[in-house]
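Hello,

I think I submitted the phenylalanine job twice by accident. Can you confirm which output corresponds to this input? Input:
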Amino acid sequence: TLANSSVPAAEVMPARIRGRVPEAIWRRTSARLHKKPLHPLCTLRTEIASYFENRHPGVFNMHSDLSPIVTTKQCFDDLLVPVDHPSRAPTDTYYVDDDVVLRTHMTAHDVAFMQQGKTALLLCGDVYRRDTVDRTHYPVFHQVDSMRLYPPATERALIQRDLQADLTGLAYHLFGSDAKLRWVDGYFPFTSPSFELEVFWEGEWLELLGCGLLHREVLFKANVASDVNGWAFGLGLERLAMVLFQIPDIRLFWSEDERFASQFSSGTLSDRFKPFSSFPSVEKDISFWVNGNFHENDLCEIARSLGGDLVENVSLLDRFQRDGNISLCYRMVFRSMERSLTHDEINNIYYDIRESVATSLPVTLR
Ligand code: PHE
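Support: Only one job matched these inputs. Its output is below.
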């Protein structure tokens, strides 16, 4: 069941509707890693679903097949994301056309479900964000998102306690009953108050999820009665799976290598990843003068679309200014997790990247 049936599923969209979305990204819309049996993201999804099912039998229905193509209204306007918010910028979001995007978060579906009268949901799916390239960032990742409405006149303080109890329970379920957790204030346009739950893991506080009480105006847009309140939360699966299963690089989730898949044979949280090799990296630098509105994400997009998953990291190495002009130097690190790379292969990709940067970005190569 689609929350918004006017938007067809990605696979049945005619090619022309791909619009401005790069081919390499578009292909990901049919991968559905969160539904692939024994895949760590699928294991995590089912683990979260069964936690909620045990805690509140029959209350939450999971939807995992919603099309990632949504309107800007669903993704931003209905959730009170300000018009000038950076998350709406074409440097951060994949626009199919002016008012259709690849969803940047699963919360995009909440209002439509509430309009249909649903009072409790668990959603899981792929979300898309343009970003820099490193070990923990990939332009496609997966989220579990949830919403629950309470009976009329339920006190907001009670709803908040319920939310926080459900979520600390989830964190203990995933990280063990001796996990160290803390709540910090958060900010999301569609919840108020908002919180983030963090877990102390290997010496660091990691952000686990964002949540809060649904904003009155969002409930109003969703035609929810004025004495009804509820909560929402959202959580990214990749970061969580990387920590729980000890997966060192986010690209591994997309690997077709049997040596990856075969390590997750139990389909439970006790699976652990043992790195199968570390092949040498090849580094290439690219330097240019900036002539206009240059955005790092555009460079990363070019590197990714030409280098695919061989691109491990793109980072700023040097920046200087001369006679009012800015020069940037970026280092690109290439590595395969499956084989050794040849210099010829990387040189070809590197020259293609240089050419594409020179012709499509507001820069002059040095
Ligand atoms: N949608 C938010 C994100 O992607 C997470 C969130 C969901 C926060 C629901 C609060 C409530 O970061």
